[in-house]
Amino acid sequence: MSRVLIAGESWISQSTHIKGVDSFTTSAYVTGVEPLRRALEGRGHEVTHLPAHLVPEQFPGDAEALARYDVVILSDIGANSLQLSPEVFERGTPGADRIDALRGWVGDGGGLLMVGGYLSFTGFEGKAAYRNTALHEVLPVELLPEDDRVELPAGGRPSAVGTGHPALGGVTGEWPPLLGYNRVRPRPGAEVLATLGGDPLVAVAEYGAGRSAVFTSDCSPHWAPVAFCEQWDGYARVFGGLVEWLSR
């Protein structure tokens, strides 16, 4: 069993309704973590979810806090949310460098997985912004300097090229189509285990005494349709395999 922290995979949506000359707004809190949580808990892992709105205040800030976990998953949560705690952003006082702490924790033996989305890797309009952080060197891929999203509205089918690697969890056969991903470039020395559109979908690497991995599409809709994240038994194998490889 591994202790897994998933940071991100939640959002607040606000809609404006206009009816003639009148208008009003409604708000909703939404999570996309459930398919991934169920998949990992179904394999016996202990999962803690830190929603996106709590990341700025509560993400672990040092090696001692990170030591509570074996694997950290960053999913659809940008670098600003890790770097700009209320202490730093609202009060203008020095605080913990949580991305540097995360880098050091991986180098000392931790496991890091980044999952794709509009606020992963470089992200929508470059707002995820990991390319300019210390975490970039930890990842098994190199990030683009511009908006890296590739939308595949008609669906694109992944190709597994490293089916014998334990990080893919023994998955075999054809994968369901995905509807998009973040385009990245493989880093020298990394292993690309699956591709999408000719680009890395799953890649892994050693970093110091630790390990890092990426899944460059999403773990929930819209990029990961129901056929992928709810109906395909390979979903739990792939994400379970990644977590188990990362935690050795």
UniProtKB/TrEMBL annotation:
Transmembrane segments: none
Domain Putative glutamine amidotransferase: 3-247
Any Pfam family hit: GATase1_like
PANTHER family: BLL2462 PROTEIN
Protein name: Putative glutamine amidotransferase domain-containing protein
